[in-house]
Design brief:
7-stranded mixed sheet; two-stranded antiparallel ribbon; alpha+beta; about 25% strand
């Protein structure tokens, strides 16, 4: 109760939940109470340049037409691809959302306005983003039916390291009333190269609580401790 909590989740891994995702969201809000703040990632990879899409891929002859008709990100209406629990939470009364076209974050509770108020376009999971705000708030992380490969705090940790892996993201924004495509640097996808190992080693320190919610394994841990552990790992291994 009262904590600030970032949740990564898979409803299907929990098993049968009577009432589905709304019950899961309501349970999390109820556990945190009126003084707690709930946050979830609300990423929208479909807002990237269609040239990078793979499921399905877009034929080169159609790329310009798809780009022309691709909707701009709208924090109020663009759905998230992070799963049914985050999408339900996005639509929950009083939930706020940051405005990054690819890696937005939703939050609800006393800390929510500060969490979502700033979201840098470059290195969108690093400094000047909701992830830094959650770190500064000494938030907790709940991995509900998912592993550390889904833990965005590890992207934040890598952003703090000089040898961070990088990539370029291309997406559209509104600039002076015109739809404009821009390119920004970002931390690269891990693709399970390091994140599961970081998580396994961190859990072994005894600073995480591992339990069961339905059929799902659940891991609860302090974000600040994880980030400090992970930055040391990345500085050593990258």
């Amino acid at each position: 109760a009262g904590m600030t909590l970032m949740v990564h989740s898979s409803l299907s891994k929990i098993g049968c939940v009577v009432g589905g995702a709304p019950v899961a969201v309501a349970a999390l809000i109820d556990q945190l109470g009126d003084d707690g703040t709930l946050a979830m990632p609300a990423a929208t990879p479909e807002c990237t340049d269609p040239a990078t899409w793979t499921s399905p891929a877009v034929a080169e002859k159609w790329l310009e037409e798809v780009r022309d008709h691709q909707p701009l990100f709208d924090a109020r209406t663009t759905p998230t691809a992070m799963g049914v629990i985050p999408e339900t939470f996005r639509n929950w009364p009083d939930t706020l959302r940051s405005d990054h076209p690819l890696t937005s974050v939703c939050a609800r509770g006393p800390q929510a306005p500060g969490v979502v108020s700033e979201h840098a376009l470059s290195f969108s999971e690093g400094r000047g983003t909701p992830f830094e705000k959650l770190y500064n708030l000494e938030s907790w992380i709940l991995l509900l039916g998912v592993g550390f490969n889904r833990c965005t705090a590890l992207h934040f940790a890598e952003c703090l390291v000089e040898k961070r892996r990088t990539m370029t993201h291309r997406f559209a924004v509104m600039d002076a009333g015109q739809k404009t495509w821009i390119e920004v640097p970002d931390v690269a996808d891990d693709n399970s190269a390091h994140f599961p190992a970081v998580g396994e080693q961190f859990v072994a320190t005894g600073k995480a609580v591992v339990g069961q919610v339905g059929e799902a394994q659940a891991t609860l841990l302090p974000m600040r401790d994880l980030v400090e552990f992970a930055t040391a790992y990345f500085e050593r291994e990258l």
